[in-house]
Amino acid sequence: MNDSPLARPVVLATIAGTRSALADRGNVVLVPTMGALHEGHIALVQRALELGGTVVVSIFVNPLQFGPNEDLDRYPRDLEADLDKLHRLGVPFVFAPSVEEMYPSGPPQTTVKAGPVGSMYEGRSRPGHFDGMLTVVSKLVNIVRPTSVIFGQKDAQQVYLVRRMLADLNEPVRVEVVETVRDDTGLALSSRNRFLDARETRAARALSQALDAAESSADQGIDAVIAASQGTLMGESLVQLDYLKIVHPDTFLPVDDGYKGAALVIVAARVGSIRLIDNAFIVLAG
Length: 286
Ligand code: PAF
Known about the structure:
Blueprint: E1 10-12, H1 15-22, E2 28-33, H2 39-51, E3 54-59, H3 79-89, E4 93-95, H4 99-102, H5 122-125, H6 129-144, E5 148-152, H7 156-168, E6 174-178, H8 198-216, H9 222-234, E7 239-247, E8 261-271, E9 274-284
Parallel strand pairs: 1-4, 2-3, 2-5, 3-4, 5-6
Antiparallel strand pairs: 7-8, 8-9
Helix pairs in contact: 6-7, 8-9
The chain binds pantoate.
Pantoate (PAF) binds next to strand 2 and helix 6.
């Protein structure tokens, strides 16, 4: 039941309908999502509403960014529940197209290439993921024509690549980044957390604990950071580390030995069969 006095969002399912509904709106703020909205998405929407324009939340599970062995079919979808949440927040427009509306001729022939950083870290484990993600973000930007677009810091590599694409392609769109929302144990919220059982949920905390360990040892330099954070992850038998890297926030490339200054620690691990990612900013000294 929904007892909010706010109007329900207008659900736009077509590109033509979206363009005409937004035609006279000067300041449009886009929150791209794949649905299954949790508190992390709610924080993105709240930021969008604070910006004061016409907020459009897109809900589209983009097949192009899933590999053949990934969880496209299993990815959670619950449009009605998502609309209820957006209704309570007072979101005026939801763009929720079908796959056929977005890709009427099947997989597109023209796609965005994420470049070298797109095949590192997440891209190494998920080949083609970032090309698919950037392609759909580019399409969403072309359809909605926002002045600002909102992303979550949890997907740090995604944020870097979207910013880079918009700059490289001269798209006049501002990117707003919202801090990662965590549960009270520190676990970063993710649509995939619902697939973790109770033991795996406890084990998954090791990712944020590893980032805390990184932060606490940052004043002793890179080697200490790596040792402390890897040690934390290796202490948890259900966690299988994929990568733990320290990258420069401006280039997303690994920092050199002896580097001092702001850096981002990025981590990915499998907990049971679920792949999780997280990251934290640190200041390296030592
Ligand atoms: O972060 C996501 O949910 C997706 O990658 C995005 C940006 C909505 C593109 O499909």
